Every structure is written in structure tokens, then in C-alpha cells.
């Protein structure tokens, strides 16, 4: 029996308010002025074993080393140990800009438990653009494909998401590397991203629709309630998603609307591992544009699809690349080949309307918002072509993008452009 919607504000089940982010660019950096440090330990096996026995481990990446948390005194002691190499684990942040939300005050809250009011737009402009249909009333596709959203979590009780959340896991807890059954989003970013990829219209079909509403969502919380997180947690989640795809015998799209300006070895290795296991990795290009060579990681990695942002603005008959959208390397324009630090494709990212953490709906902008359009498209295409490998799916996404080349929003191009990549791939 379908449940009826309730108009108005939803009832808060976790009364914890937290300010929404307003990040114009990727956040990057190390831990500063803290009492606790997350560190990567490398060196000979025997020496690593000694440190592991003394301090414990959080994530073990084999030959790459292991991570652990120590206090200031322990950190200083480790620095003096000449038998090991120690480095601080990098920080990654959400990549988006809040434009406003259901209460109009720019505040995010914890998970809500009851239905929200009806959305003002069931198929927002980004969804219509991906489907190349300005009059579409609902979407379809994605059945059997898992979309792992590595983010701030997901409000699994949102009426437009609850039936699609198949896995809910928290990789941020200090007491354990992984907590099953928990992916509470108190920030809002992850819930918004998930809706664009796979919102299913709710119980009564009157909610908002994502690109692939029949896909199964894996909500992997890798960022804290402030929108930032550690690279080892992200790397652990990437590997876990890939392994889960192998374990369940299903296709997995790993969607990451997060990033840093610097390359991290743990995440780079995890992306390569996931790709080798058959997963497709999609990541935000970053919000540090419009200058060239501003693309962030992990999007800049060769085994990740870097997604640029488009505005709902036409220039010379095509969508304009958002000014904030990070650009790749202009020296590789037109070579039809994706190298490290290249943008691969572009998708709607300016003024995107989607599911909100309070159970309602909100508008955000950023390459964070562009990324799930491509993740959803990948799920929809893969669902109809399950025999495809991840490489074949990636080639098809590129092929469709070439049909709608953008050239930085100023006209057609040949090959891949440093602002928009191959262009904007569509359903049709």
C-alpha cells in the first residue's frame, strides 16, 4: 500500500543542526592544530608490525602501509623513529555550493523520518537535459546496477530514496574502520547527490526523479558532518565498493562528489584497484575554475571519469561550462585521449534541484551536482547492457558526449576540450 505524503515540514528524528557548506573550490590540506593525528605508516614489515602492535591500525593497505590515529606526543615520537616513514593523511571535502534549501536559511539538519511535501519540479532541468527532453514527466532505468555514493551519507528515510538504499555504511567512525547499517547524513550534500543519481519519485510517484530511479544506492559515509574527511577512509570505501561488486556479482558505479587539489597515493591506488575489479569510477572535476590546470583529485586520475559543470545557459546553441568549474590541461585538447588532469565529460551542475536532508528538496551548485548526472547515466546505460565491461561503458559515455561537444561553452570542438572534455553525454 502506498503511503500518502504529508505537506509541510517533516519531523526531526535527530535534533542536531549544522551549518551547510558554501564551498567554491575543492578543500585540501593536512591536519593542523589538532590533538589527534591520522597518519600513514610505511617501512619494513617488521618495523610496521611493531608500530601496529603499539598503536593499532585503522586501514591496512598492504605494501602501501597502514593508517592509525595517535595523539600529539605519540606523533612526535613516531617522527623520531628512523626505521619507519610517517606522513599525515590528507583531507578531502565536499565539492558544491548551497543555493538555498527548504527552510531558506541555508541550514542542514539530521535525518527526518516522515514524508516531505511535494517538490516544485519533479524532473529538474538537469534531468531533462540528460534525457534531452524538456517535457519528460518521469525517468526510468538502472535496475540491477549499484551506485555507491561516497559522501556525507544519505537520508535513507527520504521518501524519494528509501526504497533504493540497499547498503548503508559509515567509514568515518573512530572506533572502527566500518560500521554497517549507518550512513546518517547531517550535512545534506550526500542526500542531494543521491537524489540526482537515483531518486525514484517516492511512494506515490509525485516526488523528484533522478537519472536512474531503478538503481540500488549504496550510501557510504566517508565525510564527516562538516563535509570533510580523511583520504584513508575514502580509499577504504572505494576498495570495499569494488569488493562488494565482485562478491555480489553486480556492476558498480562509484560516485565521488569530493576532492582535493593534491594527489593521494592511497586513493589513487584504490581507484586503480576498483577499475581493475570492473567498477566504473566517476568523480567531480572541482570548483576552482575558470583557470586552466585547476582540476582536483580523484577526478584527475586516469581511471576516474572527471565531470565538469554546465549552467542552464546557452551560448552559441549549447550549454555553457560553469565559471566555477575546474579546467584541465589545455595542451592536450583535441587528442581524443584522456590523460591525468584531463576533464572527461560535462553535465548539469549549476542550480540543481534535488532531495534535501530534511526530507524536502533544495538547490545546490557545483561539479558535485554534475557528477551524479553522469553516475546515473552510467547506471542507466549499464542496466540495459550488463555484458559490457567498465571500459566499454566508459567508451559509450565518451561517444555520446562527442555528439554534443561543448568547447568551453562557446561552440563545437574536435576531440576532448580542457573545460568540457568530450562534451555532454545524453540518454538520447
UniProtKB/TrEMBL annotation:
Keywords: Calcium, Hydrolase, Metal-binding, Protease, Secreted, Serine protease, Signal. It is found in: Secreted. The keyword Hydrolase applies. It is an enzyme of class 3 (hydrolase). GO terms for molecular function: serine-type endopeptidase activity. Its main location: secreted. InterPro entries: Peptidase_S8/S53_dom (IPR000209), Peptidase_S8/S53_dom_sf (IPR036852), Peptidase_S8_Asp-AS (IPR023827), Peptidase_S8_His-AS (IPR022398), Peptidase_S8_Ser-AS (IPR023828), Peptidase_S8_subtilisin-like (IPR050131), Peptidase_S8_subtilisin-rel (IPR015500), Subtilisin_Carlsberg-like (IPR034202). PROSITE patterns: SUBTILASE, SUBTILASE_ASP, SUBTILASE_HIS, SUBTILASE_SER. Its EC number is 3.4.21.62. Residues 1-24 form the signal peptide. Residues 142-423 form the Peptidase S8/S53 domain. The keyword Protease applies. Pfam families: Peptidase_S8. The active site is at 151 (charge relay system), 189 (charge relay system), 368 (charge relay system). Its cofactor is Ca(2+). Belongs to the peptidase S8 family. This is Subtilisin. It comes from Mesobacillus stamsii.
Amino acid at each position: 500500500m502506498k503511503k500518502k505524503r504529508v505537506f509541510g515540514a517533516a519531523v526531526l528524528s535527530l535534533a542536531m543542526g549544522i551549518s551547510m557548506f558554501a564551498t567554491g573550490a575543492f578543500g585540501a590540506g593536512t591536519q593542523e592544530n589538532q590533538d589527534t593525528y591520522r597518519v600513514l605508516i610505511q617501512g619494513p614489515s617488521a618495523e610496521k608490525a611493531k608500530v601496529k602492535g603499539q598503536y593499532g591500525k585503522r586501514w591496512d593497505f598492504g605494501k602501501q602501509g597502514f593508517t592509525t590515529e595517535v595523539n600529539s606526543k605519540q606523533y612526535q615520537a613516531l617522527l623520531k623513529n628512523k626505521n619507519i616513514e610517517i606522513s599525515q593523511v590528507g583531507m578531502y571535502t565536499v565539492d558544491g555550493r548551497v543555493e538555498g534549501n527548504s527552510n531558506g536559511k541555508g541550514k542542514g539538519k539530521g535525518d527526518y523520518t516522515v514524508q516531505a511535501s511535494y517538490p516544485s519540479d519533479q524532473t529538474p532541468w538537469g534531468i531533462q537535459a540528460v534525457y534531452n527532453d524538456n517535457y519528460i514527466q518521469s525517468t526510468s532505468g538502472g535496475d540491477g546496477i549499484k551506485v555507491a555514493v561516497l559522501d556525507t551519507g544519505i537520508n535513507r528515510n527520504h521518501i524519494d530514496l528509501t526504497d533504493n538504499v540497499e547498503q548503508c555504511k559509515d567509514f568515518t567512525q573512530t572506533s572502527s574502520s566500518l560500521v554497517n547499517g549507518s550512513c546518517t547524513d547531517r550535512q545534506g550534500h550526500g542526500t542531494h547527490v543521491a537524489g540526482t543519481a537515483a531518486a525514484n519519485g517516492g511512494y506515490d510517484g509525485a516526488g523528484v526523479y533522478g537519472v536512474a530511479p531503478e538503481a540500488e544506492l549504496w550510501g557510504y559515509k566517508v565525510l564527516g558532518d562538516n563535509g570533510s574527511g580523511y583520504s584513508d577512509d575514502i580509499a577504504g570505501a572505494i576498495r570495499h565498493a569494488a569488493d562488494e561488486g565482485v562478491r555480489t556479482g553486480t556492476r558498480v558505479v562509484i560516485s565521488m562528489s569530493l576532492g582535493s587539489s593534491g594527489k593521494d597515493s592511497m586513493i589513487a591506488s584504490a581507484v586503480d584497484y576498483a577499475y581493475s575489479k570492473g567498477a566504473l569510477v566517476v568523480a567531480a572535476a572541482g570548483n576552482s575554475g575558470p583557470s586552466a590546470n585547476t582540476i582536483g583529485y580523484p577526478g584527475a586520475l586516469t581511471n576516474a571519469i572527471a565531470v565538469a559543470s554546465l549552467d542552464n545557459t546557452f551560448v552559441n546553441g549549447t550549454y555553457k561550462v560553469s565559471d566555477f568549474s575546474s579546467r584541465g590541461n589545455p595542451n592536450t585538447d583535441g587528442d581524443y585521449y584522456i590523460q591525468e588532469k584531463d576533464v572527461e565529460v560535462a553535465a548539469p551542475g549549476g542550480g540543481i534541484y534535488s532531495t534535501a536532508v530534511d526530507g524536502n528538496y533544495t538547490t545546490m551548485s557545483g561539479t558535485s551536482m554534475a557528477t551524479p548526472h553522469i553516475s546515473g547515466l552510467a547506471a542507466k546505460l549499464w542496466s540495459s547492457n550488463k555484458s559490457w565491461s567498465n571500459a566499454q561503458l566508459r567508451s559509450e559515455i565518451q561517444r555520446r558526449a562527442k555528439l554534443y561537444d561543448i568547447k568551453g561553452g562557446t561552440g563545437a570542438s574536435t576531440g576532448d576540450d580542457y573545460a568540457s572534455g568530450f562534451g555532454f553525454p545524453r540518454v538520447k
